[in-house]
Every structure is written in C-alpha cells, then in structure tokens.
Design brief:
It is built from 19 helices and seven strands. By secondary structure, the protein is mainly alpha-helical. The protein has a three-stranded antiparallel β-sheet. A two-stranded antiparallel ribbon has the order 3-4. A two-stranded antiparallel sheet has the order 6-7. Strand 6 and strand 7 form a beta hairpin. Helix 10 runs parallel beside helix 13.
C-alpha cells in the first residue's frame, strides 16, 4: 500500500461524459476517512465542504455532489468515537489540501488543541490575563529618563506597534490557500523559515517567554505572599516562614491549578487573573494619585555623567516600555482553542476578544505610567516601580486593607498567569510522549510531568536569584517575538509585491524591531558589566 493511501483513504469518482437527461444525476459520493483524532488537527482545512454549510456542492463535470449531514467538525471536541465521512468534489481545494498535508493525529491529545470550543469571551480572558502583569508597574521608571513628552510618545507608539503585530498573528493563524491552522507560534515560525532558522532564532526566546516568565511569577508570587501575610497578621512573627518557604507555598498552589487538562479548561482561571490584574493596577495608580505628589518631586529627565551612559540609559528606558507588552507568544495558542470554518474563521471572534482585552490593557497601562510619574517623579524606585513606591511612601498613610487587597490581587494574578504561560511548556513536554508512544498521555503521567515542571521552576527561582539582573539582556533576545518576527512572517507567507506599501511597512517594522533588539542586548551587557552581578546561588532576597 502506498504512503498516500496510508494517510488518506478515499473512493475516487470516475468522471462520466456529460449527457442531457430529464433529471440531474447525482454522482457517487467521494468519501475521505480519517481517524477520529485527525479531523480536529490544525492541518485539516476548516471548509464549508467539511462542516455542512450547504447541502450540495457542484462536483466534477457539472455533477452535483451530496453533502455530509450538518454536524460541523469545527465545533466538535477532538475526542470522538465515530469516524466521520467527508464528501468532497474531485479536485476541490479540500482534497488538494488533504493530499498535500500529512494530518497530525497528535493534536487531539495535546493540551493546547485538545478542545476547540473556545469563543471571543475566552479569548478576551486569556489575552488580558497574559497581556498585563507586574512589569507594567515599572513604566514610570522609563519616564524618569525620557521625560513627559518622549515618554508618552514612545509608550503610544509601542502600544500601536505591538497591537499591529498581534493583529498580524491573529490573521496568520489560518492559511486560506493551504487550509492549515498554525496553532503554535513555534509551528508557524518553523513552517515559515524552516526548522534550522527556527531553532536558532525562535526556540530560546519563545521558551524563555514561557519558562522564564514562570520563574519570575514564582518570585513575585512568593515574595508578595510573604508581604501579604505580614500585613494581615503583623503580630504573627514568632516563627515566620522564610522567603524560600513562601516560594514553595506559592508553587504548590500553582501546581494544583496546573492539573487542569487543557487551555480551554483554564478560561475561568484566566478570568480571575484578568480581574485581579485590572484590580491591582487600578488600586495602585488611584491610591498614588489620591495621596498627591511627594514633596520635592522633579520631572527633569535624569542624565548620566558620560555620553555612553546617557545613550544606554535611554535604551534601557525604551526597553522598559517594550517589555511592558507581553503575551504575543501565546496568541496563536489561544486562537487554536476556537472552532474555525471558511464561513466562520476563528480570526473574527479572536480579534473581537483582543480588541476588548487591549482596550482594558490600555486603560491600565497609560494611567499607571502617567499617574505614577506625576505622583513620584524621579523618586520612584527603580526596582519594583509603583508597587514598591506605594509601600515605601504610603505604608502609614494608606489603609492596611487597601495594601493587603493590592498584595492579594498580585498573588492571585501571578498564580493565574502561571497557568497560561506554562501551557506551551506542558504542550511541548506531552508532544514528546505522544510522538513516541502514538497515544495520549495518561492522566497520572500528566499530573507527574506538570508537578515536575512546577517544582523545577521553583528550583530555578531559588537556585538562581540573580536571574533578574540579566533580565534586560535576555529580554532583548526575546523582543523580536513581539515586534519583528510577525512582520517578517507576514511578508514570507503573503508574498506582497516588493516595495508596495504593505511590504515597506512590515519590512521596516521588522528591521526596526531587530535593531531595537540588538540595542537592548548591548544595553543589557553594559548594565551587567557596569553594575556587576552579585552571584549567590540558593540565597533569594
């Protein structure tokens, strides 16, 4: 049996001469049989020919071909016991796509693509939870170097730029010509530029944006849990937990939540994370503005002594703004949880969810940056930003309930964000098992692997506490994932006319993103060399 026959079993239609008949004849049905796990593969075209959008379609030589019953595949969950029968015309785009594409049965077994019942509300929850975080509280620090005018201009341009690249990713998820869905950022990058380039330029930054963010979330969640405990019970200090023990407490909570099976199943967790993110951002900037400006506040941009220090100071400020935007490495994965068809492509509800979530993100980021700089000016702490400033300057002026609620929101948001940022790592780990064993991961093995990931991340958070000192350097390497790679991938896939307006726009933004990444890496090296790194293993602060 040939290789093609192994992949697709079909009964071809024999073309017949066209004859005049009193009644139109119906051609025999062409049936394509796929294993149950394949018809929700991202490689399978979501076409009206497959989802029963109409009852009949014209076939070869003008014949009319009957359609399958109206049971849209796009809204089915991946695990079904019955093998569907697809009816497609001979030489239709669907048949061509099926012949060209090797269907991947493993996608129905992996946590990202296991369930495709998502909607625009789930997309908004996931995007908002992953798109805003504690790094937004450092935005006023960038204003201390850039000043009012350039700070607001660069923050606005950065927001528009990353929103444009996010829009590109949403529309790149589905390829109309080939009928394929790219359900993972690394998958799209690899199929666009090849495995070798993808492994060199994309693997580390994409994995870092997942695993590295989980490490940072454990540090933030653990340390803020300790702070919350001290606020709620200031007299309970007879035998307090150490910082490492608080890291462990937070990790245990995060690991328990990570046992939810797939990306769709954590929609409620992402909703809670989104609400708490908006909550602590709003509480911090409203409280800071309500308390008024600090005495002696100055808005004059900080200038270093030497020219090179001033240049790298500006680059560092631009990097702070760029790092405030995150979550692009998860957009394709979030969109993969949605059903899709030719009449109802997934990019429509996905973009609606993105519009709502990024409107709320803008409502949080701009008041944080502008209000925080107005309240603290050049006195804002470089480490911790507004969160640190709130406790440092207003711990005695503000109600302890507000401080405690803010800390609680930060802890809850960190635990919820851990789930969505860890999902690509869970998916990658389980894909190695399914590709080798050709069957789904058992529930007990899934629990063990996710617990191992969670406590492995905890080990890195404790063992390498100085990881934050090189965050700017590593962040510069990851910057193209947000600002450059989507533009280059759009050019490579859509192939616009050279020097056309869209080609020039995307090429310019891609090159500018790579240049900015290079500058961020150089600035990160300069900071490491200039300030040094206090290397202390297993001694978290």
């Amino acid at each position: 049996m040939s290789r093609e026959a192994n992949e697709i079993s079909s009964a071809p239609i024999t073309p017949r001469p066209t004859t005049v008949a009193p009644k139109p004849s119906v051609a025999p049905q062409a049936q394509v049989s796929c294993p149950p796990s394949q018809y929700n593969s991202p490689s399978l075209s979501r076409s009206p020919l497959l989802d029963g959008a109409s009852d009949q379609q014209p076939g070869a030589e003008g014949a009319v071909v009957a359609k399958a019953p109206k049971t849209p595949l796009a809204i089915r969950t991946p695990r079904m016991s019955l093998t569907p029968r697809f009816i497609t015309p001979l030489g239709s785009p669907v048949r061509k796509a099926l012949k060209m594409t090797r269907l991947d049965p493993q996608d129905a077994w992996l946590p990202i693509t296991e369930s495709r019942n998502g909607n625009k509300y789930y997309a908004a929850f996931h995007t908002l939870c992953s798109g805003i975080g504690i790094q937004a509280l450092v935005l006023p620090v960038a204003f201390t170097v850039l000043g009012w005018t350039w700070g607001i201009i660069l923050l606005t341009l950065g927001f528009i730029w990353q929103l444009y690249t996010l829009c590109l990713l949403v529309h790149l998820h589905e390829n109309v010509e080939t009928g394929m869905r790219y359900s993972r950022y690394m998958q799209l990058f690899s199929l666009t530029y090849g495995d070798k380039i993808a492994n060199w330029l994309g693997l580390f930054p994409i994995m870092y944006l997942s695993g590295g963010t989980c490490v940072a979330l454990i540090v933030i969640g653990g340390s803020t849990s300790k702070l919350f405990y001290e606020i709620v019970c200031p007299t309970c200090t007879s035998k307090p937990l150490t910082t490492v023990e608080w890291y462990l407490v937070f990790t245990c909570v995060a690991v328990v939540l990570s046992l939810l099976p797939n990306l769709n199943s954590i929609a409620g967790v992402s909703l809670i994370g989104a609400i708490t993110a908006i909550g602590y951002c709003t509480l911090i900037w409203v409280t800071s503005v309500a308390e008024g400006r600090l005495p002696g506040v100055s808005y004059d941009p900080i200038r270093a002594d030497t020219q090179i220090a001033r240049v790298f100071g500006v680059l560092n400020a631009i990097g702070i703004i760029a790092f405030a935007f995150r979550g692009h490495n998860l957009i394709l994965e979030i969109q993969a949880t949605m059903p899709s068809s030719e009449k109802h492509p997934s990019h429509v509800p996905m973009w609606r969810g993105v519009q709502v979530s990024y409107t709320l993100i803008a409502v949080c980021l701009f008041p944080l940056a502008i209000g925080g700089y107005w309240a603290y000016g050049h006195l804002i702490p470089a480490n911790g930003g507004m969160f640190q400033a709130l406790y440092h300057y207003h711990s005695k002026d503000v109600s302890q309930s507000i401080l405690g609620l803010t800390s609680l929101f930060v802890v809850i948001n960190a635990a919820c964000s851990f789930q969505i940022y860890g999902m690509p790592m869970f998916d990658d780990t389980e894909s190695k098992y399914t590709s080798r064993m050709k069957k789904p991961v058992p529930w007990w093995l899934r629990c063990i692997s996710r617990a191992m990931f969670g406590f492995g991340v905890f080990f890195f958070a404790v063992a390498i506490p100085f990881l934050g000192s090189v965050a700017g350097l590593i962040g510069g390497i990851s910057l193209p994932v947000t600002f450059a790679y989507p533009c280059f991938m759009w050019i490579k896939i859509h192939k616009p006319k050279k020097y056309s307006p869209m080609w020039c726009l995307n090429y310019s933004l891609g090159v500018l993103g790579m240049i900015l990444s290079g500058f961020m890496i150089a600035a990160g090296f300069y900071v490491v060399i200039d300030t040094g790194i206090k290397v202390q293993f297993f001694k978290p602060h």
